[in-house]
Specification:
With 266 residues, the chain is an alpha/beta fold. The protein has one domain: UDP-N-acetylmuramoyl-L-alanine:D-glutamate ligase. Helix content is 37%, strand content 23%. α1 crosses α7 and α5 packs across α6.
Amino acid sequence: MTIPIALTIAGSDSSGGAGIQADLKSFAALGVYGASVITALTAQNTTGVTGIHQVPADFVTAQIDAVFGDLDIRAVKIGMVADLAVIDAIAAGLQKWSPEHVVLDPVMVATSGDRLLAAEAVESLRRKLIPRASLITPNLPEAAALLDEPVASSEAVIESQGRRLLALGCPVVLIKGGHGQGAESVDYLVGAGGTIALAAPRIATKNTHGTGCSLSSAIAAGLARGEEMETAVRNAKAWISAAIAAADRLAVGHGHGPIHHFHRSY
């Protein structure tokens, strides 16, 4: 059989709940073969991060060339990239290999609200990676940080921010509403044709580690399988909602545990 292949370019999570590990689990759960380019190693678990070791930019380039030089990559997911030289290496790799689909998850703001990227790195992300993306998937704080604006507190402002993010050069933006309030978690898919609101019940659980990573990689998996963008987003939203709902069936760690990537299997 010929299996669709997707690539994740992101950091490693030693506890297995987010980053590269979450991406590869998402690909596997959705019937896609996963390859990886590691941008950083982290020492972390469900209670927090205790160390980060950046991978040199030239070795990121070597990984990109090795993977694209051999595998038929149908979609790429990009996660957190904190180093300016690594952003340059990824941008150069995308230009060289021209993958059809690129899903960029601009991980810039921690749940606490603290910025994870310096201002110059955010600017590099805006100029060098967002224009090469097919879709970007910021949450509400990340969308605000990309635009240097307050976090949106209404649907009208979310739509307005989505349109301004389109002006940065990507054709479609998915603003995730997990940081919002209310009985439903509403994501907003903003494109040239308008805005689509995608709602799902808000699930009460502390086990949401890796949700953003897994959603963006699930979308990339759908694109790798040949789905249209809206279909890939809708299917990924349904899958991630079920994975969050099943998270409490797992007992992993003492902090914010992972979602259940393989809820369909066990």
